[in-house]
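quick one before i forget lol
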Amino acid sequence: MPLSAAALPYATPHDPSEDAPSSVEPLGTQTDSERLADVLLPGFTARMWKLRFVTFSAVASFVADRVVAALGREELRLEARLGFERLYVSSLVRAHEEDPNAFGSAPEQLPGRRLARTALLAEEPLTKGNFLQGQAINGPFGVMARLTRHLGVVDDESRPGRSATNLVLDWAVDEGLPGILDDEGSREGAGAQWMSEVCRAVSAHVSRSDWPRRGHRIWEVLARPLRPDVLGKREKANLSLLLQADSLRQRMMALLMEGQQAYATALNRDGKRGPVERHVLLDAVAPALGSEPVDRLLRATIDMSSAYEDLTGLMQQAFDAIRWTLVLMGGRATPQAVLGHAVTKAQLARTVVELRRVIPEFTAARKTLSQQPSIRPELLDALDRLQTDATGCGAPDTLAETVMSRHHRVQKAKRKADWVDRDSHWTLMPGFGISGEAPPSYQGNWMHPFRVMNAYSALSDLGKVSAVQEVSDGEA
């Protein structure tokens, strides 16, 4: 049965701030889930959706090179890239506003889309002050940075990487822009003219804060060849080869292609990332694995990921039961009152029972994973610390003390205040409560992203899954 358009991935909202994703996580479990996800899909992140942004990043690195050279100021390299990015985002929003039929899906999943539209309607330029906070990591270039560096498209200093030239040249052929990387001053090819025009606009924006007027030619020049919803034939082939260069990623992408029906089924049934990715990895990918070294590593990582999500979900469940109870009690109560509440007491007791089942599975998975030579010691050490915490949770009161102490350690390491101030009374800090008729339960529902949905988005962009992708706005 073909994969339906509704079953393909859509972006979830993210907070465009400079904090790392794990900074708002109370028990410090995000980092190690990301390490596990890195094994399964190297270079992928939970915030990357459109592969065209890989090509955009390559183009941006060359534009920044030329703007810096023209201005003679190396210190403006980052500003040149960010300025180009603001012009690019605004061009797509403008194109959609002026011709929604032609550019109907172009701005979808474009970071900064709504902020750019607000500025456009107010007839204001897009600047550092009214665009994304932390644009360097939250803009189209930033959300793809891990993958573009992994693919060699950009280097650690965001300059053109070893793969950038061929990718840009292939994109330029598809878009009818020959000569895109010809020497500065060349006017013989459409690509050379395009690059010259773009660099002039970026230089003016960076050095003089110029912003092109409504109807300026630069908006169409940027929007048409770089729209995120259309990839050319040569560009697709280039990106496919880059993604296949890593054996683990190549194998996982192949397995996901084989398991696309499981993905469609899970997404239609569950809708949310956690249960969908759990179903795909456990029920489609894992059974298809063989005995080759790559498959053994993938199996060990999937087993560890499953046990990790089960255990951390139970720990989070205990922590959230305490937050829920404090809300019920007006935000402040004695520990005895919180832990003695009938619903909370029952929830913590159930969690203890589930932990007794999960811990042996976690221990076995950790042992198997440790036998894989490519697994880094810091991941194994973190798993050991988590296992130690969980093993000490033999009763509801010790479970509560464990999760509260772990939260305190995590917040202290981040130099942030605890969500619950503990003395003779426990006081829930504003903004950290949980409402509802009952405390939340995370049993069987993975909390952390494992990038399966992002991989399917990439496969859709490459034409590897038989459907047209329909997505929502990825900004908010």
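fyi Confidence is low (pLDDT under 50) at residues 1-22, 468-476.
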